[in-house]
Write a structure and sequence with these properties.
The chain has 112 residues and is mainly beta. It contains no helices and eight strands. The chain has a single domain, classed as Sandwich (Jelly Rolls), CATH 2.60.120.10. Strands 1, 2, 3, 4, 5, 6, 7 and 8 form an eight-stranded antiparallel beta sheet that branches.
């Protein structure tokens, strides 16, 4: 990705599998920040996990049950979640939907 470009087009970002019923597109990113778009089918699971990145998730559409540090939250369009570094979190898609994840720093593992 050319870091001198200021606009990144969704259509130019390939969707990759991120679990059964989940696809991810890596959008604009730098070493310090990354934006990803995820599409979930109903019933798809974002398995419980943790990572050293700070993360905010914005729900574009659908409904999701998030588990964050052992607490459960039901979120829908317009809602956001915050995950501090190294906290265990995951989700279940209750209604097909789309979310946008923002990470700092960038997830180099998503670029491999």
């Amino acid at each position: 990705m050319d870091k001198t470009i200021n606009a990144y087009y969704n259509a130019d970002s390939p969707a990759t599998a991120a679990g059964e019923g989940v696809t991810r597109k890596v959008l604009a990113h730098s070493e310090n920040l990354m934006v990803c778009e995820l599409h979930y089918e109903k019933g798809a699971i974002g398995a419980l996990h943790s990572h050293p990145h700070e993360q905010i998730t914005y729900i574009v559409s659908g409904r999701f049950e998030f588990t964050i540090d052992g607490r459960k939250f039901i979120v829908g369009p317009g809602d956001t979640t915050y995950k501090q570094p190294n906290v265990v979190h995951g989700c279940v898609c209750l209604e097909e939907g789309v979310m946008v994840d923002v990470f700092t720093p960038e997830r180099k593992d998503f670029l491999a």
